[in-house]
Design goal:
The protein is an alpha/beta fold. The chain has one domain: 3-Layer(aba) Sandwich (UDP-N-acetylmuramoyl-L-alanine:D-glutamate ligase). Helix content is about 35%, strand content about 25%. A six-stranded parallel sheet has the order 5-4-1-8-9-10, with helices on both faces. A four-stranded mixed sheet has the order 3-2-6-7. A four-stranded antiparallel sheet has the order 12-13-14-15, sandwiched between helices. Helix 6 packs across helix 7. The longest helix has 15 residues. The radius of gyration is 18 Å and the shape is globular. Belongs to the carbohydrate kinase PfkB family.
């Protein structure tokens, strides 16, 4: 079982438009609503693969009820933490050329009582978990050290932690030594405090993040593939994508694929790459099912292309 923790979930509305014109009336070609938040998306991808998952998340107001209903309909066990505030609603505008514009609401502020209940709910459901995936931003009320506290408590109970967050919460959590962290290129650059122009730059940054406390680093480089750095070595994985329909949740699908395949080694990286590549071909934040995966198109190698320039360098 993979347990996910999403401190700041959302109700996500995705509109596909031909082109986004500022100041004009833009008519959507399609509309869809999905339960959102990085950990929620990991649960959705795990469930799509036919694996058991439990999603721990604070829920409040009408959007919270809607999120719970949508997750239940997808076969995901929900461990809700009732809160007084309303769950946030986010909007994504996906243009025909693959450009995505996201508007993310800040979310409600959790009271001290709600914060403690959230931690207790994680503890209650962690006993049966193979992995605990803690993902996303922290809502108001939670200190930047909150993820570090979760990592410490989880390790005390014998659980493995995968962490996908950024900024100060990531840096604080690294001191507690999470088993794996999954930054994207921008988050990786932010963690080491410098720009990344090549795959080699990203590899060096990932190695430094390991030195800060991460057991392993699974870094998403967008169109430039993924790298995995752990005790046993480093690998580079990629897969061709002809057209990007939406990259919402692609990183979350990547982490789900990695954990589904065991959470370590080149085979897990290959599964992560297959899931990420499949996710960008799907609308909105739809998570890929096994039929969407093209494992044969994935390449994983220990020969990392260090000099390869990133298509989207991070400054």
């Amino acid at each position: 079982m993979i347990l996910t923790v999403t401190p700041n979930p959302s109700l996500d509305r995705t509109y596909e438009v031909l082109a986004l014109e500022r100041g004009e009336v833009v008519r959507a070609e399609t509309e869809r609503m999905d339960p959102g938040g990085k950990g929620v998306n990991v649960s959705r991808a795990v469930a799509a693969a036919g694996r058991r998952t439990v999603a721990v998340l604070p829920l409040g107001g009408a959007p919270g009820v809607f999120v719970a209903d949508l997750l239940d309909a997808q076969g995901i066990e929900v461990a809700p933490v009732p809160i007084a505030g309303a769950t946030r609603s986010n909007i994504a505008l996906a243009e025909a050329d693959g450009v995505l514009t996201k508007i993310n609401a800040p979310g409600p502020e959790l009271t001290a009582r709600e914060q403690e209940l959230l931690l207790e709910t994680v503890r209650e459901h962690s006993r049966d978990a193979d992995w605990i995936a803690c993902c996303g931003s922290l809502p108001g009320g939670l200190a930047p050290s909150w993820y570090a506290d979760v990592v410490t408590r989880a390790h005390a109970g014998g659980a493995r932690i995968a962490l996908d967050t950024s900024g100060r919460p990531l840096l604080e959590a690294l001191r507690a030594r999470p088993d794996v962290v999954k930054p994207n290129a921008e988050e990786l650059a932010q963690a080491v405090g410098r720009s990344l122009a090549t795959v080699g730059d990203a590899l060096k940054a990932a190695e430094e993040v390991r030195g800060m406390g991460a057991g392993a680093v699974l870094a998403s480089l967008g169109a430039d593939g993924q790298i995995l750095v752990e005790d046993t070595g480093a690998w580079y994985g990629s897969a061709p994508v002809d057209a990007v329909r939406s990259n919402v949740g692609a990183g979350d699908a990547t982490l789900a694929g990695f954990l589904i395949a065991g959470g370590s080694g080149p085979d897990a990286l290959a599964c992560a790459v297959a899931h990420g590549a499949a996710a960008v071909r799907l609308p909105g934040s739809v998570m890929p099912a096994p039929a969407d995966l093209d494992a044969a198109a994935v390449t994983v190698t220990a020969e990392i292309p260090l000099e390869r320039a990133l298509k989207e360098p991070v400054s």
